[in-house]
């Protein structure tokens, strides 16, 4: 089943006993069939799908929590979502990272939203010596593949050499555009933890 199928299944009123006929007519009927779920469950699911602001979703995974530490008190970092209703009717989700305050109840570490976090990481990566990371090998093959593809499109005879700038650009791209697994993966190669301290981040090497 595709993700789209699952969504239309979850949004189908038929399962709690009613249906609309003809479609989009506004004429609703109670079916003679036995409902599979309750209306309450259906409504709850719709709220989840729309990202209701009042619900905390503990199940939600965040890309960077596991590789972040509070730079002030040494506690872990947790993340939460903040919903913002848009004028047009949509909902914007912002992810914020902050100290769990497990070690210091009053830790004044502050928060950082994920968009800023990624922007700052991208800046920090410019100052990392790639030779000290395993990232180079991992990414080089990808970059060569991309260059080949690019060359075949443009018919250019560009060189195949991969520079550190190429590798860093690719890492920055992964951090911005890719899935949370890719983000974690790529940050794992830096063998560093991300320290959050007074609304700023730093990369700190982890001893092997
Ligand atoms: Zn702290």
Comma- or semicolon-separated keywords:
208 residues, 36% helix, binds zinc ion, 6 helices, alpha+beta, 2 domains, three-stranded antiparallel beta sheet, three-stranded mixed beta sheet
Summarize the structure.
The chain is of the alpha+beta class and 208 residues long. 36% of the residues lie in helices and 20% in strands.
| Assembly state (oligomeric) | single chain
Percent of residues in helical segments?
25-40%
Give the integer mean of the pLDDT values. 84
| Order of adjacent strands in the largest pleated sheet | 3-7-8
Describe this structure in words.
- The chain has six helices and eight strands.
- By secondary structure, it is α+β, with helices and mostly antiparallel strands.
- The protein has two domains: 3-50, no CATH class; 65-205, no CATH class.
- A hairpin with a 2-residue loop joins strand 7 (192-197) and strand 8.
- Residues 70, 72-73, 75, 99, 101, 104, 107, 109 line the site of zinc ion.
């Amino acid at each position: 089943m595709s993700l789209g199928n699952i969504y239309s299944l979850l949004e189908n009123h038929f399962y709690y006993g009613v249906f609309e006929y003809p479609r989009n007519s506004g004429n609703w009927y109670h079916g003679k069939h036995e409902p599979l779920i309750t209306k309450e469950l259906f409504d709850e699911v719709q709220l989840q799908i729309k990202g209701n602001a009042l619900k905390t979703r503990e199940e939600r995974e965040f890309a960077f929590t596991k590789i972040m530490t509070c730079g002030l008190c040494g506690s872990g970092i947790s993340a939460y979502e903040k919903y913002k209703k848009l004028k047009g009717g949509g909902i914007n989700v912002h992810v914020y990272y902050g100290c769990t305050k497990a070690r210091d109840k009053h830790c004044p570490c502050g928060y950082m939203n994920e968009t800023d976090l990624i922007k700052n990481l991208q800046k920090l990566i410019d100052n990392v010596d790639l030779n000290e990371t395993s990232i180079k090998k991992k990414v080089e093959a990808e970059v060569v593949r991309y260059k080949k593809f690019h060359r075949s499109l443009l018919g250019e005879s560009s060189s195949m050499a991969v520079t550190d700038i190429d590798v860093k650009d690719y890492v920055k791209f992964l951090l911005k555009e890719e899935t949370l697994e890719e983000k974690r993966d790529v940050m794992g190669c830096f063998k560093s933890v991300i320290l959050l301290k007074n609304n700023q981040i730093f990369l700190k090497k982890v001893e092997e």
